[in-house]
Amino acid sequence: MYMRIDIKDLQKNFGETKALKGISFSVNQGEAFGLLGRNGAGKTTAIRIILGIIDKDGGSITVDGKDIKSQKLKFGYLPEERGLYLKYSVSDQLIYLARINGMDKKVAKKNLVDLLDEFQIPSYYNKKVESLSKGNKQKIQLIASILHNPDIVVLDEPFSGLDPVNIELFKSVIKRLLKEGKTVLFSSHRMGDVEEFCKKISLLKSGEMILSGDLEEIKEKYQQNQIEINTSSDLSKYIEANNLEVVEKQEKRHIIRYRSNEQVNKFFKEIVTCGIEIFKFEYRKPTLNEIFIKELGD
Amino acid sequence: MKTLCTIFKFTYIQNIKSKWFVVMSIIGVVLIGLLINIGSIFGLIFPSTETKIAVYEDGSIGITDSELKNISTDSLVLQKVDQNEVNQIKNTLKEKGAEYKGIVIFKDEKSGVDFHINSSDTNLINTVSTFVSNKYTLYKAQRANIAGDTYNYLFNDASINIIKENETAETNFALVMIMLILLYIVILYYGSITANSIIEEKSNRIMETLITAAKPFQLFAGKILGVCCAGITQVLILIASFMVMNKVFDKEVSAIKGLDKITNPAILMYFIVFALLGYLLYSMLYGALGSMVSSSQDAAQAQMPMTVMLMLVYLLAITASSNPENFVIRVLSYVPFFTPILMFERLILTSVPGVEVILSIAILIISIIVIGIISSKIYRKGVLHYGKGIPVLKILKMKS
To answer: Which residues of B touch A48 (CB under 8 A)?
Structure first.
């Protein structure tokens, strides 16, 4: 058992290209961590170094203070570019993958039957992968990355190409993994999904880490002094009277910018006193998507 | 080691379970069956028919019926005819279903002998011509009053005793050709299976998953050994089916001279050793080349250098079969890429000292180790590289 993985000043060069210019972050056991960035930002390079596929040029990766290579942790990896043996049967290749990951054949068989049940495809045990639909291939791929009971699961774009029902199924499996104390490392473009799982994130741009830490704290930092009110009444005279600014208005939904909390308190008191029916009132925090676009958009 | 064994076992089982393995084994067994029964099959396709040749002479030469019967065979019958039949036979020679295919007409001394024939069978023409020529020479000798002894002295063949010192070379020629084709196929076929299977793992992107679980060297070595054992299994199936069919059909395989020696333990052992080492050497190169391309479309292109190289060695071996002790061939048989085929050829066709065989095998094994190290380095760096092919030297210089 381990408690914490620390990545410090990770560097990697490919010839003249600096793919990673010193990234650092920490993940506790049982936590989900989001590694975010646009294509080519260095996410896959960082993942490959953590998985031990390629060597780093600088920095350190430690588990509870000891080098990760000495810790014999088991990794599960769902690569962005999915890949399976198309001509082989589901059970042949999944048991093979579990075995080269060090799992006993009998245990692998039992785990496979359980996972196929969990993914609602128990009849696919002997089917050839080429005969499966895209969504079912994705399920097999996720099973391949968790069948051998890994300590750390790295999921690169886990929900891409899935229908909403399967997305929910995948999410329920990931939640189970987190409950069981697995550490999950996300790399994704679907910010909504990352927000749902990750308490901590890192934002990469051209190999540099431009943002890292607790998601709530980051959102606080990116606060834009906005409130959202949903109502069917006309608010224009109250907004004007309190010197507020309408940022966006869509039917019942109003996004309003304020300068001070006193302004908001006064405005709120007024509309309540006047008996205006309010469906929703909240201090608006930026979504991760907005932060992503703000930081990484051209 | 456990991981390597798992990869080896998986590669081996998936290969022998593959459709291609089953199809190729069946084709191989059928071909062996055909080869063993080649004589009977030829007999069925081209049944021997009796060819009748008419012989006419006015009695002065003195050809007897028993003489004609003596030189007749199952397929050739010589028969005396009368003068009144000559024209009719001559005229009907070209007709379909004619009784006679040819006619020999001994004329007077000035005009010699006419031989009308409606066949292009050179064997038949030669047999009849030799008989006619001998008969006619004897007739003329008698006319010139040359006594029997003098005639024999003049016209009988000089007694040349041909003692073939290269008996092994001659009888083993067919064997060498067949074994060389087998060696060539084993190395080329299984080498390209190795390359294709690496390209497949790369192009369907399972490589990323595999390389997370196992070291590149384990994946590379497991694959090469797995395919190798599948190859050995297939060759053993073919050899066993040869032995069984040989017994069942009870044919004289020596119809193809020397082919029965295929079951000779020493030759089999050399074949297996050289096929194994040849496969290992070439498959490592095939594997390294396979790891450098990303899609199956590039597979043929990547394998081209090895295929050309192997064809060159094979052609050289065919040329060398007439003179296997040629200096260049002797030198080349120590060069690792040539050893599996050329040294094997020399071993069967001539007698090669044991030291030379051991030396060539030692050089081959050392080369396999060196090429194995280089190839697994290329593989390690090549498998995660997608896109345009990169030069070998650049790959070797690349940091992982």
So the answer is: 384
